[in-house]
Each structure stands twice: as structure tokens, then as C-alpha cells.
Specification:
Length: 479
Amino acid sequence: MRNLSYTIITLGLLCMLSCQTSSEDNNDYNIEDDSSIPIYEAEEIKSETQRSWNAYKEYAWGYDVLLPLSKSGYNWYEESLGISPFDAYSTLAYMGMEEEIKEIEAYALSKDWNQDVYVQIFEVNIRILGGLLAMYDYSQNPEILEKAIEFGDRMLPAFDSPTGIPYHSVNLRTGATAGNHGEGKGEVVNVAQAATYLLEFGILSYYSKDPKYYQAAKKASKAVFDRKSDIGLPGDFINVETGEWTNSWSYLQAGMDSYYEYMFKSNYLFPDPEIQKMWEYSLDKINTYYAEDFEGKRFYACVNMHSGKIVKRSVSLYDAFFPAIQALHGDIENAEKNMATWDWIWDKFGLLPTRYLYEADSIEYANSELNPEIIESAYYLHEITGNEKYLRMIDKYWHDMKACCRNDVAFHAVEDVRNMKEKDYLATYFFAETLKYFYLAKVDDSIFQFKDFVFNTEAHPFRKSHFDRKKYKEYLGIE
Ligand code: DMJ
């Protein structure tokens, strides 16, 4: 036992040293000047994706998630939804893994959604519906579209609330609504759960030529927006039956992030004057109330929705999606300031902790779960500005992630970025997003051109030219 403890401690120290060496190296590493150091190759990412996908197939096929340390599978609910293949498909497709994507298409077609299970509407929207729609976007197989429409129809009863904001969860078989895992009523949701549907539901309406999906998503987003405070900010938790705010914090973090993201992205793909107004109004409030220059760095704080006063100087790694949106919107100056802060936080720890208190300069939540947002923003900024320093950042993120999170079969999350303690979990978004952004950042233009696509919040790509600028208004019911 004692020997085992020593072995574990020694292995832990070795891991810490290797991770810290990597992060310390990076602190000395001047990304602007170091143009002689070669950047990783796209082929390396593809082979790491193949290796991790093989591990999912060997140890967890049929389960939602791979547990890479115990080499087993894990389900979110009592029954498996088989989420990883839906999330992985679009990444494997653009990597040219033909055999694997054919296998996933067959799996998707054989999937029986008539499951007596309550699923969280937000999560299945971005991962399963988003994944199925991207599968159709890539394969153009009409049977896949039928599966996507069926899945969308099973989600719709969740939106049948007095406000039009969806309940937390829906039973895929019965359409009954509830809270998590069928518990409670599910009437209190955060704003991301309330209003992250415009993009997938817009695409579903376009392809099915039935406006009902987009209109349901729009009603939900407007229901949140219309309940903004006197100074124009939404809160973070809302009751879907009464429309009352149950908490009055306002921020860019997980829980609100994709509410903002989808106002922008949906309007980017399917211009809708009402949504555009909402986005422009909201962006102005974000810049007025959340943005704070603190000790020479740009942060986006948590504020009170009524007073606009800062309630917490805290950021979460999810907020690192925002430089991508700022850059695509055309606000390069703020995107670059924001990105520089994220890169600085990365360098402090060698990975991003889930939540960092910037005034106290301390970690609030120390886990790090292979999240994609910082890579996503560096990728957008590299594509949009052409500045090589963003590719150098991505290269650093890849080397650090490899040093701290790669094991003998795949990659794993980290419990604590201060000691890089391993966590037995590989989130499905690692396949959908993290590996995809690493790959696309280095892949040749003949394979993928950033400017031709829109990504959902789970990085499922949609080719813009598939959506006719003259027809979308009719299909989505936009006046
Ligand atoms: C992803 O599942 C999505 O990007 C979501 O919008 C929030 N972030 C996670 C990954 O960090």
C-alpha cells in the first residue's frame, strides 16, 4: 500500500513537472518572435483524433462518453443517447475519415429515438440535433435529414410553455417536460438553456421548409430579451412559466454565453431584422456593463442586471468564446484585447482553470476539461487577421494539452490545474470542437475554408452556400 502511494506520488510529481515545464517554457516563449520553431502539423491532429476515436469505439461504443482512464463508457441518463458519434461526425468528416463517417451515418440511421428518457433540451440541441444537421450538411443524405426532423419534432414539446421558453428537459418518447433526469418541473432554466436554438432550428426550418422550428426558437429568444431590466440587461435564471427572473446576475459565462452567441450567428446566416436589433442592442450593453479594464487587461465581469454594478470579478473558461464573436462581428480591437487576456491566463496555469477570480488573482474552480473556447477564438482571429501570433498561441495550447491530458489511449480532463491531477472523463465536445479547431487551424484551404462556413456552438460546421439568400425568409417565416 505504502509502495503504491509512493508510486502514485512519484508519478503525480513527474506529471506535474512535465506539465509545469511545458507551461513555464511557454511563459518564456515569445510567440511574436519565435517564427523559427515549427508549428504542429494537421496530420498529427488527425492521427490523435483517430487514436482517441479508436479508444471510444473499443471501450465505450454505445455509451455517450468515453472514460479514458478506466477505459470504459458512461451514460448521461438511464439510457444511452450515444452522443459521442453525433458530436464526432463533422470533425471526422472534414478530416477525411471516410470509413468512420459511414459507420456513424449507419449508426444514426439505425438509432431509435423513441426512448423513455428525459433529456436536457439545450445539450441535445447543440450536440445531437446540431450533429445530425451537420451530418446532413456534409453527406446530403435525405434519410439523415429525416432523422434530424424527427429529433427536432421530439424536442418541440419542450417549447410549449406560457412564455415560449423551453422547459429544462423533455421525454423523447412522451413529450412530457421536467427538470434534470425527469426530476421536478424543470421550470427554472438558465438563459443559455432558454435561448440557444435559433441556429439549429433555423437550419431545420430551412431544410424542412417549415417555419415552426425557427419561430419557436425566436419566440424563446425574444421572451428572454423582452424581459431585460430597465438598463437593458437580462438576468441569468428565469422561470419559463411566469417569465420572472429567479436570479439577477448578468454575464458572458456558461449559463448565458450562447444566448448572445446565437443572436449573432443566427443573424449572420439568416439575416432577420428583429434579431439583428436584439444583437446590436445586447452588444452595446455587454460593452457598457460587462467590459472592464482591470490592471491593464480586458475582462468581462459578472454584474447586477438592475444596477449594472460589478458583483464578482470572475471569468470562466467558457467566456473565451467571445473574442471569436467579436472578431466575426468586425470588432477586431476588442477581440484582440480580450484574446490577450485569455492567453495570459493560460500562461499562468498551462491550461485554463474553469473559473478564475481576476481581482483576487486566484482560482475559483480548478478543473479543466479539454474545453475548446480559447482555441476557437485564436482560430477565428488567425483566420480573420492573418496574424501568425494566433497560430503560435494555438500551437502552444496543443503542446500543453498534449503534455497534461494525453494518456495511452486518448485524452482526459484534469481535476486541478495546480497539480494536473487526472480526471477520468473525455467530454464529447473534445471530438466536436477541440480537435476540430486544432485541425482546421493548420489544414490546407483546399480542404476547408473558414469564410465559407458557420459553426454552431458545438463547432458543427454549415456551408453558407447551402442556404439560398432568396429563399430562407420564406422557409423560416421571417417577414
Ligand atoms: C460546448 O458544449 C459548447 O460550446 C457550449 O456552448 C458551451 N461550451 C461547451 C464546451 O466547453
